[in-house]
Amino acid sequence: MCGSCGCGGKEATIEGAGLHEAVPGEAHAHEEEHEHVHADGTRHRHSHAQSHAHSHAHAHAPAPERDHRETPEDLPVRIDEDAGRLVRIEQDILAHNDRYAGENRRRLAERAVFALNLVSSPGSGKTSLLVRTIRMLDGRLPVAVIEGDQQTSLDADRIRATGAPAVQVNTGRGCHLDARMVGIAIDRLAPPPESVLLIENVGNLVCPSSFDLGEACKVVVLSVTEGEDKPLKYPDMFRAARLLLLNKCDLLPHLEFDVEAAIGHARRVNPCIEVIRVSARTGEGMAEWLAWVERGAAASRTLHDETVEALRRRVSELERRLAAS
To answer: In this structure, is residue 46 part of a structural domain?
Structure first.
């Protein structure tokens, strides 16, 4: 299982040319339970956190005989040791993920692709919002989609029905996308230059906050049916997001949802977060959301052009120096 969040990682599959490709598993934490029988007949069971980066064929060096019955003084030492080991595993996994994310970001920047990582709880209306977004962007910006779910291709099928290319990533027991999965999906999609890449993450407000996918920014979708205290309950996600889309606002007349309280809670954990009220069903706020996307795409194109121009000037300067030497 994943050493960062505990989810399974080896069952992930990615669509591509009519086939599904298994995603190689990364090193992950694994609990192996052992039982010892002592001279006095007592039995003692405990687990060792291990990494699958090494072989399972190993032997334990014999330890001196002693009473293994745990005392309160023993417990804090073992707990601290296990916690430290798990922190190291998590740091290794996130560092490994960040290397893939950096490569994704470089590849997207080279093609001036504006990538957004959409995150939310299950049932927030992300897919419906994406469908309406794609239809409204038709003729204005090319769009490609990476769909993340534990199982089925239902959401990717809905996206493809709009005419936009989409690749489904099924994470199996995994509760989030990671940068390696997204990198393979980018290979499958080959998003065109100066396009928008929308990544719909697995419905989960915890783990996706820690995993950089190489996106320009995270967009958190909060439905008014969920409760205005979600930003306080899941602060890491709202802290990591640049934009909050408050979705299903057409239902507000039928709910006891305090919009200003929800926005206040979000800005309490992230004072810089932007907020747009939307409804995928009625279209409320969609023009503002699309304008936000188009500004981001334009900024990506500008950054790309400035980078290319800076490289050209650098090459010209080097050629001039070589010619003068």
So the answer is: no
